[in-house]
Write a structure and sequence with these properties.
Blueprint: E1 28-36, H1 37-42, H2 47-71, E2 76-79, H3 86-97, E3 105-108, H4 110-117, H5 120-123, H6 125-128, H7 132-136, E4 141-142, E5 145-149, E6 163-167, E7 173-188, E8 193-206, E9 212-216
Parallel strand pairs: 2-9, 3-5
Antiparallel strand pairs: 1-8, 3-6, 4-5, 6-9, 7-8
């Protein structure tokens, strides 16, 4: 869309935003759990419930992994050294701002989080203006960005612990969920077993690569 200079009495020109389409077809993810009644009777805690709890965590990790894979399509990469620096963060923010996007969120791996905890600007109260790092172990907001961390277990590989992503939360990617995490219990009488099936249909896709900047450390 373009805004034009219009002469007095002249017709105001028509224009509109041009859109493109993207197709989402969420695949299905699932896991089935089966436990014998003897085990349920003899165990000191409910193993079926515990397995369901762990499965729920695995679904959350899968969603995080899908998001990270989408963010890997970032148009810009900031190559850091052995440890993340403030300059790396600022450069990643500028990459977004140069494309007229806003750096709203920073998603960091575990090694990057460790680097943040050792940057004195974010640790010393007289520099940061608060004691968030000392009191909570993490700074919640850096340069206006919400800081989030992801588990190494949720990443596609262990090398992701050295990565951080700065992105515009409203422009970078989209999640299509056709089926939320769904739990259905069942019984196998002929096997004397109880169990549960958990499924989810979800897809994550990158929308605008310029709205993401990837920071890598060595």
């Amino acid at each position: 869309m373009d805004v034009r200079k219009v002469a007095e009495g002249a017709e105001i020109p028509l224009d509109q935003v041009e859109y493109t389409s993207i197709n989402f077809k969420p695949p299905k993810y699932g896991v089935a759990i089966r436990i014998t009644r003897e085990m349920l009777e003899d165990a000191k805690w409910n193993l079926l419930q515990h397995n369901i709890k762990v499965a729920g965590k695995r679904f959350a990790e899968k969603e995080t992994s899908l998001i990270l894979t989408a963010l890997d399509g970032a148009a810009n990469t900031v190559s850091g050294g052995a440890a993340l620096t403030i300059a790396n963060i600022v450069s990643a923010m500028q990459n977004l701002e140069d494309s007229d996007y806003a750096a709203t969120t920073m998603l960091a791996g575990m090694e990057v989080c460790a680097d943040l905890r050792q940057i004195d600007t974010f640790v010393e109260a007289d520099k940061m203006g608060n004691r968030d790092m000392l009191a909570r172990g993490m700074v919640g907001i850096i340069y206006g960005m919400k800081v989030l961390k992801f588990s190494t277990n949720a990443a596609p590989s262990t090398t992701y612990s050295k990565y951080a992503y700065v992105f515009d939360n409203s422009q970078a990617y989209a999640i299509a969920e056709k089926r939320p995490v769904t739990l259905k219990g069942f019984e196998l009488e002929t096997y004397d077993m109880q169990g549960a099936v958990l499924t989810q249909r979800i897809q994550v896709k990158l929308l605008r690569s310029s709205a993401v900047s990837n920071i890598t450390t060595s």
